[in-house]
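Final report, Chapter 2: Outcomes

The project's central promise was a pipeline that accepts a single protein chain and returns its three-dimensional structure in a standardized token representation, suitable for archiving and comparison. That pipeline is now operational. To close this chapter, we reproduce one record exactly as it appears in the project archive, with the input sequence first and the structure output second.
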Amino acid sequence: MKIGILGPSGGEVGKLIESLEERRDKVRGQVRLYEGRLEGLPVVIGVSGVCKVNAAICAETLLLEGAECLLVCGVAGGIDPHLRIGDTVICREIAYHDVDISFLRDDPPYLDSPWFHADGKLVLAAEKALGSEQDGKRIYSGKCVTGEAFIADEGREEIVKRFDPLCTDMETAAAAHVAKAHGIPFLAFRSITDTAEKSGLENFHENYLTSSAMAQKAVTLFLREIAAE
């Protein structure tokens, strides 16, 4: 099974790209692609750019490159107060926090719920691979929400009230939407750059690379687990 890995930026998948064996680089449209093998598995990695439309374009491009499973690797803002910077979320359920679901019910793929669900087998493999802690940082499994705006303090309370997620980002739901439309397995790993206590873009930029490294380690351990099955 060829695995597509989507990263919003080069820093969020750079270590994975550097680890590729038999690496081949290409550009399709404006999407940068890196193909090869990780942990013995065939993969193609795409750097999408931020926000939902870019993520959807990249996800579709990965499928055109033969991906039969889609992963997202990147960072996120912590919403749940238990999360700390560097913790990683295995995203079991994903929703848009800024889209009215009523607009999506009458057109393909006819969504009957605001939530996209990660593939159950992939979730179990990730939970087995990562356990409850990596490098002193906690591993969580639960809800993630996606929207166009960076969430600092404004809007946080409304998101908690409506969705009660662990974290929020700007791409995952769009990639999950593409996976659902094509009926392929999906899973996302997001590591925390900022929290309610340490919110704002300053904290994001300060923790971006170290948290990105945690997300990429999570993906690597996950791939190792499924390669061994």
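Archive annotation: The chain has one domain: 3-228.
This record, like all others produced under the grant, will remain available to the consortium after the project formally closes.
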